[in-house]
Amino acid sequence: MPDLSRSRLQDLIREEHARLNERAAKPSATLKAGDQIDIQIPEATSVEVKAQDIPIDVLYEDSDIIVINKSPGLVVHPAAGNPDGTLVNALLHHCDDLSGIGGEMRPGIVHRLDKETSGCMVVAKHDLAHTRLSEAFSERRISKFYLAAISGLPKEQKGLLKNRLGRHPVDRKRMAVLYDGAGKESVTEWTHVGSHAGCALILCRLLTGRTHQIRVHMKECLMAPILGDPLYGHPSRQPTPSTRLMLHAWQLAFEHPITTQQMAFEAPIPQEFTPWVEQSKLD
Fold first, then answer.
1. Residue 99 sits in the same domain as residue 161
2. Full residue range of the structural domain in which residue 97 is found
3. Quick one: pLDDT at residue 101?
4. Cα(62)–Cα(202) distance, rounded to whole angstroms?
5. What pLDDT is attached to residue 173?
């Protein structure tokens, strides 16, 4: 069943949609000659989230995927505190149908951006596209470049940040660098590409996609939180005021999940970044 990912098959087994010799079994069960496996793939979960006519900036769209430039302040999917007014609500209005494999509250969502982060996102329109894109993200076959304006100037011009990130041991809303094998591997390549008013513009290439990865790496590794970050910095104390989190998902490249064509997208750099871009080495 090449259209199903390993994780999707594991979920089917746990949910007893895949049975071994007519009985429930664990994904780790050992097989022997003569065993019979029966699999029933359930219908995609119906989406209960309502469609809303919320403007979205579409960079590309076909029958399999849609790539959008997410605006800052837009939550990706409904959750506690944000029951509607999200990107998912907007996509349900824009698209005739979306995959239900991501769950009732996250149809088609393969990856996410924080509420205040702007830039490129790809969304799957059906289950096969969702499965293959999810595998590509998991296997690090997606190219992701971000721009971040940070509070200060790094000592080096470039570097590789590699450590483990996990939930902060005290403040559960935050993530932190963890030690002793805890957390998940997190890798960010970074380059100092511009400066303005004592603050640096950093080009980040994400080699992993952990929650708040760039925000934590800038704060804890470069010792310079992203401008306008209320969670990892103190915007009122920063040398340059900002009305938003200065983090933008600039470029996204991947293999089309159905046609296998190589695709690359670029979300226009927001005007808030103009003072840094004018002094930068960006192409």
1. no
2. 47-139
3. 65
4. 32
5. 87
